[in-house]
Amino acid sequence: MPSTVLDATRREFLAILAAAGLLPACSADPGSEPTAPATRTVQHPLGTAEVPIAPARVIALDRRAALPHLLALGVTPIAALTYESIIGTPFPQVVAEQARDVAVLPTGGSADDPNLEAVAALRPDLVIGWTNGIEEVYPALSAIAPTVAVDVDFTDASVSLRSIAAALGREAEGEAVVAAFEERRAARLREIGAIGTVSVVLSIGDQQFRVYQPTGSSVARWLAEAGGRIVPDIASANGEPYGDEYVLISPENLGQVTGDTIVVMHNTGAAGEAALAELEGSPLWPTLPAVQAGRVVKINSQESVGSYGFQGYGSVLDALVDQWTALGTRQLDE
What we know:
37% of the residues lie in helices and 19% in strands.
């Protein structure tokens, strides 16, 4: 086929794509190649991505802190996966005002399953998502826009924050967020004074209670690092251990929750309220020393596991210290 015919066909094809909005209009002219945006190569758990130096249309495909982390780093995404199924509102209250211009991205099935057509329609220049949540659709997402997968550590929100900061080239901003929180954490926990022994408990429903260790809970770790002792320890607990993070116990073993103070973590929504009622309605609950002494502190579990980012960390820290100091100054045994 003559080259002039091939050139004409190519021009027509590019013109059709440009008219459909699938290429910049200037690309219809074969003699005028668009300037490729400057990118940086980002390695992540699912591969590598060529990320724009200054992405302007970021989508957060994650209900485990990508949205709060982006906001903390000074980046407002154009859309984010909704938290509706776990908290009853599109986004956590601690970032609702910051996220007022963020579109709620519809799901394609489960709560972690993004609607690919909706993602493509928004024309993102960067997609960030939880590794386990986007693994199956990663090739499809990568065909839409550069996609970066982020691992999540539910005991340390800095892991995902630093990964997102690295993807955006905002490492300094990320470190500033972490440092500011650590300074504030130390100052606020000093208000408690002598911490004594602490038991950190979460009811997960079906008459099952988790008793956390410092390696399995950010709040338990904070209290241990501030001088408290978390009880029972993994070796002496009677229940089903989950690594070194927590022990799963049944109601008849609730008597081993002997901390001078009990920190009760609870989830929002109907399921979370029902699970909390199971714990507080257990026959042994009113016999626990801390319950009898009125030394029970309640905190939001989603905030404490980092799902609301460092904004959530700040909120749960305040709830922890404010309630604790309100309990009075009863002398605690070390």
